[in-house]
Amino acid sequence: MTRAAVIGVGAMGRNHARVYQEIPDVELAAVADLDLALAQEAARLRGARPYTDYQVMLAEVRPDVVTIAVPTQFHCPVVLDTLEAGCHVLVEKPISATLEEGRRMIERAVEVGRILAVGHIERYNPAIIELKHRLDDGELGQIFQIHARRLGPFPSRVQDVGVVVDLAPHDLDIMRYLTGKEVERLYAETDRELHTMHEDLCSGLIRFESGILGVLSINWLTPTKVREITVTGQRGMFLANLLTQDLFFYENEQAEGLDWNHLSLLRGVGEGQMVRLRLRRREPLRAELEAFVAASRGELATIVSGQDALTVIELAQALVRSGREHQTIVLKAQA
After folding, report:
1. FRET partner for 93 with CA separation of 20 to 30 A, picked from 68, 214, 234, 304?
2. Strand 246-252 vs strand 236-241: parallel, antiparallel, or unpaired?
């Protein structure tokens, strides 16, 4: 039986507590939050012990795995304390407030021989998993562009970072995961329309190795949530709706059996069939925590590593810098 705990039981932490309770062979042993009422309520609902001091909880309960869902600015000290207590850690994204803090966390996890996973939950979305399989199988042919749209209203829970650091890591991670490529350069335009301290709108252009173009549209200004990824290539376009876990393929009817150079010169692109692909829907958080628990037991499981998470934080910070300075940021020299 794996003993689990959650530090920080706000909106996301409460869901982690619920899912741990639902996983077979996992006991949700404790929850901790500075807000006693939140800790007591989460503990009452899930049959766990409540704490306001997470260090006392770590010493008394000695959990095997811990989710850390506190504000980003506190990730580093809480993660380091939890690793020192001998626990495997899953920290909600973004991994850290600064690159230096992220490196310290990664290095310490290696030193103490514990897993440091990061909650990039979209990696476990069935639509993204299926899209990755189909791209790896070459069903789209050459990939030209990947476009991510993550739009919605302002979340009152977020006060310490802007929309880029809060939301862009999801889609930057997805783009790297789907393409298997690193970023060469990027450019962003950002604005602060309603937020008092940080940007709440970003439009970014990202050039990947091998010439794939990424387009990123994110904001906290749209009154309804939009979570979409489109991948355009030689044989057509995939559209993944991450909210509904739907995946569609729009065929380029002219592409079959033709070399793209020949196609572009003589026939152009034509509208073909649209296919809605059948997926087995499941809760991404359940899949994420099951993989984390399996990895903590030494089983083969796919987790988002600290290094992957740190890379997307570097990219997100480069987008913020580009938006502030109105300059293209070069991250990797072209061969």
Report:
1. 214
2. antiparallel
- CA angle, 306 as apex, 51 and 43 as ends, to 5°? 20
Cis check for the bond before 94: say yes or no (omega within 30 of 0).
yes
Give the residue ranges of DSSP H helices in 180-305.
260-266, 284-296
Q: Which amino acid is at 254?
A: Q
The secondary structure of 51-115 as a DSSP string is: ES-HHHHHHHH--SEEEE-S-GGGHHHHHHHHHHTT-EEEEESSS-SSHHHHHHHHHHHHHHT--
Please list the pLDDT of the chain residue by residue as tens digits (335 residues).
Answer: 999 999 999 989 999 999 999 999 999 999 999 999 999 999 999 999 999 999 999 999 999 999 999 998 999 999 999 999 999 999 999 999 899 999 999 999 999 999 999 999 999 999 999 999 999 999 999 999 999 999 999 887 656 678 998 899 999 999 999 999 999 999 999 999 887 788 999 999 999 998 999 999 999 999 999 999 999 999 999 999 999 999 999 998 766 654 545 544 444 556 668 899 989 999 999 999 999 999 999 999 999 999 999 999 999 999 999 999 999 999 965 44
**What are the strands of the beta sheet with 329-330, ordered from one edge?**
271-277, 246-252, 236-241, 221-233, 143-153, 213-219, 201-208, 183-191, 329-330
- Residue 1: CB atoms within 10 A of its CB come to 9
Residue 147 near residue 215, CB atoms below 8 Å: yes
* Domains of the chain with CATH codes: 2-119 (3.40.50.720), 123-282+314-330 (3.30.360.10)
The most distant pair of C-alpha atoms in the chain lies apart, rounded to whole Å, by 72
